[in-house]
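User: Some background: our group keeps a shared notebook of sequences we're curious about, and every so often someone picks one and asks for a predicted structure to add to the entry. Today it's my turn. The entry only has the sequence so far, pasted here. Could you supply the structure so I can complete it?
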Amino acid sequence: MERTTLFIWLAVLADGLAGLVGGLLSERWLTRHLSALVAFAAGALLGAVFLDIFPEAVQATGPSAFHWAFASFLALAFLEWFLGPHHHDHSAHAPGHHAHTGPSSTVVPSLLAADALHNLGDGAAVAAAFLVSTEAGVATTLVVIAHELPQEVGDYALLRAKGLSRAQALLALGGVQLTAVAGAGAVLLGSRWVQGLEGIILALASGTFLYIGATDLLPELRRATGPREARGRLYGFLLGLMLVALASAMERRLLAH
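Assistant: Of course. Here's the predicted structure to add to the notebook entry:
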């Protein structure tokens, strides 16, 4: 259990550091490669859902995993229909995109609140996955980081466009990353009292990741402005898919020995 807990906190730390990477990259590089990063996230997200996370959820909870995954998928759909989209348009947040930069009393707090809730779920999913198996934990961590990179880069660009300095933007994003710690801690404590909690959370995460990949990320693959960008997105998607598949195969091989 101590080893599993260590893996969980290391994974949460890696996720938190990934959320701050936007401040380390040049705006020119982000402008050129953000769409490929989004495509990479889509491939990694969907690959891990079908190759690792959801199979582990089914193994842990049985057929009820389908019900939990479907429930989380529908919940996100209803949330967007009634409250408006809570996933970000990555292309609109690219540093080269000229967004409105005037003062806003709601955009920044709303973005940070949504990001905090997202990170809370990520921390819970990572902890639940490691409690089920190391294989599921590694796959979920890869997925969370892959999706975190383009999302947090987009958030960073938007905060900068809204007038925050580099230090202020990084401090704000670093603060909301702490909610992942709360999510992981809640699962670690709750798993001692609720039998099968890990499998339920993995099923919920599967539905969530599937919704994000299918409705938020995949559609952006069709928005390429030219052949070069289209190729970059295709290669990014295939790379994300192949890396998750390779990690899954290597993990299974190591566990078999």
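Suggested note for the entry: Residues 49 and 55 are 8 Å apart (CA to CA). The chain has eight helices and no strands.
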